[in-house]
Every structure is written in C-alpha cells, then in structure tokens.
C-alpha cells in the first residue's frame, strides 16, 4: 500500500480512537493535525483527516482548506466522528457546509463516536442542555436522528465507536482484508 498519513483532531477521544484503529489497519503514520505543518505531509501519497464534528463543523478541515493547492495530486479522505447515528442526508449536508471548492471531491466517511458529559467543557455541557430543552419542546415523532440521539443520552456516558464504521473508508483505500479479519473475530 502507498505511503500515507492520518491526521486527527479529537476533543473527547473518539476521533483519536478511530485514528488509532486506522493506523493499525493501514500502517500509516499518525499525527495530531494541530501539531502538523504542511511540509511534513507533502511526502505522503494519501492523507486521511479523522476528526470530530462540533456544531455542524468538521474539526481540522481548515488544514485541507488552506493547503488544498499544495495537496494537488494527493489522495485525500475525511473520516468524521459524531454522536448521532449515521444518516445519509446529514452526511450530505455536513459535506455541503464544510467541503466547498477544492474540497468537494474529497470522499467523506462517518463513524459514530462517544458522549462523555463528564469530559465536556462547561460551555459544551451548557450548550447541549440548552439544545436538549429546545428539542424536548418538539413532538418525538418529528425528531431528526441527531435529536433522538441527543435525547437518549440522559446524562450518561455512551461509547458507540466501532471498527465497522471504518469499512467504507478501508474499502476506498483498498485495505479491506485486515478489517474483515478483525470484524470476524468480534
């Protein structure tokens, strides 16, 4: 397999966990995006950004945005991590909002992450509580998937991470055999 690097940005640990699993599957190097300079990635043929979704934004996507000209000819991939279950329309909307211009051709993948209120900042907890109050005013049969996921947390910690979410990305990378072996052992 070609040389590659996994760049990750993780606020609460789920994206870092997926990045570690990707490293195991691909053998790619791994770096936290905030500690990486463009010169350090130019020698790699493939780059994967593995990051969380916060307030409808893809963390770390700015690295690709500001360096897209220098990354021409590289295979770029984005693997996002969020608390909501997978929903195709939500993923399309995420891509529309975050991956404009030179980023629109980059494949986007999704894995379900974690909900760890105990690790959240005061600001994040407060925003989530306010959002829950707003959602609670709606009829449950009108909730979007992310709303149902939010309302199901009830102050508990949830870890929905699963290697199976990496399958579509690994298929795109051509590294499916290793994942199949791992999934069969579960």
UniProtKB/TrEMBL annotation:
GO MF entry, a single one: menaquinone-dependent protoporphyrinogen oxidase activity
SUPFAM superfamilies tied to this protein: Flavoproteins
Species in which this protein is naturally found: Sellimonas intestinalis
Name of this protein: Flavodoxin
Flavodoxin domain: residues covered: 5-138
Any one Gene Ontology BP term: heme biosynthetic process
InterPro entries named in the record: Flavodoxin_dom, Flavoprotein-like_sf, Protoporphyrinogen_IX_DH
């Amino acid at each position: 397999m070609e040389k590659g690097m996994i760049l990750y940005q993780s606020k609460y640990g789920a994206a870092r966990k997926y990045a570690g699993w990707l490293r195991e599957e691909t053998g790619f190097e791994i770096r936290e995006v905030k500690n990486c300079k463009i010169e350090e990635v130019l020698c790699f043929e493939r780059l994967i950004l593995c990051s969380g979704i916060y307030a409808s934004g893809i963390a770390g996507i700015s690295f690709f945005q500001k360096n897209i000209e220098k990354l021409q000819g590289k295979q770029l991939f984005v693997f996002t991590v969020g608390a909501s279950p997978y929903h195709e329309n939500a993923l399309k909307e995420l891509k529309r909002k975050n991956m404009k211009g030179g980023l629109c051709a980059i494949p986007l993948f999704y894995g379900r992450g974690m909900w760890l209120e105990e690790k959240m900042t005061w600001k994040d907890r407060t925003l989530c509580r306010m959002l829950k109050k707003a959602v609670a005013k709606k009829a449950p049969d009108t909730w979007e998937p992310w709303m149902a996921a939010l309302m199901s947390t009830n102050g508990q910690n949830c870890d929905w991470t699963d290697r199976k979410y990496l399958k579509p990305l690994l298929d795109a990378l051509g590294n499916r055999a290793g994942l199949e072996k791992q999934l069969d052992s579960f």
